[in-house]
Structure formats: structure tokens, C-alpha cells
Amino acid sequence: MDKQQEQLDSIREIRSLMERSSRFSSLSGLAGVVVGVLAIAGVIAAYLFLGISPSQPAYYSLLSNEQGELNMNLVTYLAADFIFVLIASLIAGLYFSAKKAKQQNQPVWDVTARRLLINLTIPLLAGALYCLILLYHGHIALIAPASLIFYGLALLNASRYTINDIRSLGIIEIVIGLIASLFISYGLLLWALGFGLLHIVYGITIYLKYEK
User: Fold this and answer.
1) Is residue 176 part of a domain?
2) What sign for the dihedral angle of Cα 151, 154, 160, 163?
3) 164-184, pLDDT tens digit by residue?
4) 157 lies in which domain range?
5) What percent of the chain lies above the pLDDT cut of 90?
6) How far apart are CA 59 and CA 79, in angstroms?
7) In a domain, 19, yes or no
8) In-domain check, residue 73
9) Is 154 in contact with 120 (CB distance < 8 Å)?
């Protein structure tokens, strides 16, 4: 009986080692919280610059005139706003992931991390190009929903190389993106929900589940 138990323990240990070697486990819950706060701050900055409140949902109507010509000052500001949020979020994610990996005595950059990055990047790049195409054709209202959908697809695609919670997050992001596509007047608010509040909830959940 003892020998059989030892064999089972050995199998469990081998399985655990294989899972750790094939999955990137240094994603930080604190990074998710920071990313969520940054996203909400970015949306608040956008509303303040546009001079409207969330109760005035059709924000995109301010970005072009009746002839469909874009107001480049507003478009440039919003683009700079969200690019800043993106860069700051990447820095926060890298910092907290590196810090967690160091605490766990694990490498930050290995084969699994590279696979995760590649599978995450391909849908994100496709989404970025698609959003630029939407902007080119003047379909500004669909940019926020499209970014949510492609981000969700990126998380779903990368989830096989990290914790399973990422898969659930990706699915929810896709659902919110589809809802935002249906209710385009509320796209900016739903963007804040998907990239902001949802990341905060996800970050707290990951922190309590794996890091506390």
C-alpha cells in the first residue's frame, strides 16, 4: 500500500512539474488591478476632454461633423490617451510579473513566456489594424467594441499557456464587446467596464486565489 501511494505521489509531482513548465504562472493580480484603474482613469480623462458626462452616451458624434470629416484634435487626444493607458498597463504588467517571478524563483523569460506572448500578440495586432481600418472608414463607434472583442480573443488564444482564469476573462471580454457592438452609444462605458472594472475584479480574484 505504501509503495502504491509513493507511486501516486510521484505521478502527481511529475504532473505538477509538467504543468509548471508548460504554463506561465507569474501573472500578477496586482497588475490586473493597476491596469483596471488606468483604464478607468483613461475613460474619465476622455469624458472630461470631450466635455460630456456618461449620461450623454453618443460620444462618437463629437468626433466628426455632418459631412463625416473627423475632428483630428479630438481623435488625436483620444488616441494619445488610450496609447498612454496601453503603455502604462504594459509597464505595470511587466513590473509586477517580474517581481512575482523573482519571489517564486522562476525565470521571467523562457519558452513558455515566449509562446504566451506570441499567442497574445497576433490577435492584438490584428485587432489594432482592424481598429485603424474602422477609423479610416469613419466607423468610430465600432472601435471600442472591436478592441474588446479582439482583446478577448487574444486572452482566449493565450490561455493555454497560463492560468485557466485568463480563459474566463477572455470569454467575458468578448461578450462585453458584442454587447457594446449592439449598444454602440454606450461603447465607451462598456470599454471602461471591460478593460477597467473587469480587470480590477480579475486582479483581486487572482491575488486572493494564488498570491495571498
Assistant:
1) yes
2) negative
3) 888 899 999 999 999 999 998
4) 29-211
5) 33
6) 14
7) no
8) yes
9) yes
